[in-house]
Amino acid sequence: MIQVWRVSDVRSAEQALMATVPPGTLMHRAAAGLARRCATLLAERGGVYGAEVLLLVGSGDNGGDTLYAGARLARRGARVTAWLLRPDRVHCGGLAALRAAGGRTIDGRTADGAGRHADLILDGIVGIGGTGGLREPAAGALARVGELTSARGGRPVMVAVDVPSGVAVDTGGVPDGAAVPSAGAGLAGAGPAAAGTDTVRADVTVTFGCLKPALMVGPAAVRAGHVDLVDIGLRPWLRGTPAFEVPGRDDVSAWWPTLAPAAEKYTRGVVGVATGSATYPGAAVLSVGGAVAGPTGLVRYAGSAAAQVLDRYPSVIATGRVADAGRVQAWVCGSGLGGGEHAVTELRSVLAAPVPVVLDADALTMLVDGSWAEQLRGRQAPTVITPHDREFARLAGQPPGDDRVGAALRLAAWMRATVLLKGDRTVVAAPDGRAYVNATGTPALATGGTGDVLAGLLGSLLAAGLDPQRAALAAAYVHGLAGRAAARSGPVTAVEVAAALRPVVADLTGG
């Protein structure tokens, strides 16, 4: 898995590495990687030679990285202009290199000579040391940038240097006043009124050494655009525990249970699904749909929507209640269950079972009053809860806020359960303090019933023997890919997401 590191860890690693190399080495490594990526972007728009490049240059090393990268582009024939937002605190070495390469500068206090066109803009305003939203003159500069166009057609490409300026690097939060532009519209194309000027919204972020939380989680991740990682030799010097980890395709593929030659339905695992009701039979069908797409050999359904489930999935063994379902290796409970006496009885039976349990939707609602706390904390088998933000707020007493990873970890520790906090970047938090983020999410999944599908798939992975964190991550990863696949055919419903799970799993596992 890819490790994501906090600012303090990055700073410590940088200091340790810089003690072993000549002065300026890290900055030149970063600038070389940044310039290389910018050159690739410009090549897609007619080439580096003659391109208009605007550098937004703040103080400190982030501005230095930007200036040195600009010098490299200028030596390749680009017309590079550096907008110095803090001329009195500019990086002197970088500025000298840019001027020696033929680049020009303008004073950020007046913006005289800023021009009307740019093919590429480098955001070197604030690096990982920045806190809070952007202030003047940076905010005013971004407002001007929103008015620029590319002389080659279209809008400029915005490239953030290390992180988009103005975001909270360690949490992924953004200032309250920073409006979020529509997906796919970079700041330069949205205009100042649409995008806000408290943070940069980049098309590409070129980050150095390692990933930082703001690039992978929270509203800041949306502003990062496509993230490219430049190796500057930092990895061996990173110490301690990362902020969180992000699984990749190879991780999920390796975790996914495989069939042994002598496998049969019971050895593959049996998952029980206690969802749905006469009022919400669709929740049962969807959660079972997620379960049958997983690796288990048998699904047992317990609930009042048995007729609808069997009509869609005749291989399922259905009963009216959990107590009559028979032996399972994991339970999924809650989606569409309602909140009456029957629902309470079913939840109590599920929690009493000595097997892993997934609690979703109505099961989470029943937990809010705290009366189930003793039974939850007394369970010896794993519990996984799958709240969206509103359910999280009811359970925790407040919304997740900007620090989604920290909030999920606090709830996981309090409930002694694995928390799968749903969202565009789903967070998985373990009660022992480990945290993970899934990066395959899509807004297409923001439609009724997709969470039911996710819960069923997660339960199947638990029943097949995966530990709670890997099961939650694998389910979220595949669920996200299924949402993307379904979206390619038009507007998405949960039915299409459930149907897309099988081909996604087959592609992932080579089946």
Please explain how this structure is put together.
This protein is an alpha/beta fold and 511 residues long. The chain has helices spanning 7-18, 25-43, 60-75, 92-100, 138-145, 187-190, 192-195, 218-224, 249-255, 281-292, 306-312, 341-352, 362-367, 373-377, 389-396, 404-415, 450-463, 468-487, 494-509, and strands at 2-4, 52-57, 79-84, 104-107, 120-124, 157-161, 204-208, 226-230, 244-246, 270-274, 298-302, 317-319, 330-333, 357-359, 383-385, 418-421, 427-429, 435-437. The protein has two domains: 2-246, Rossmann fold; 260-384 and 438-509, UDP-N-acetylmuramoyl-L-alanine:D-glutamate ligase, CATH 3.40.1190.20. Helix 18 (468-487) crosses helix 19. The longest helix is centred in the C-terminal third of the chain and has 20 residues, at 468-487.
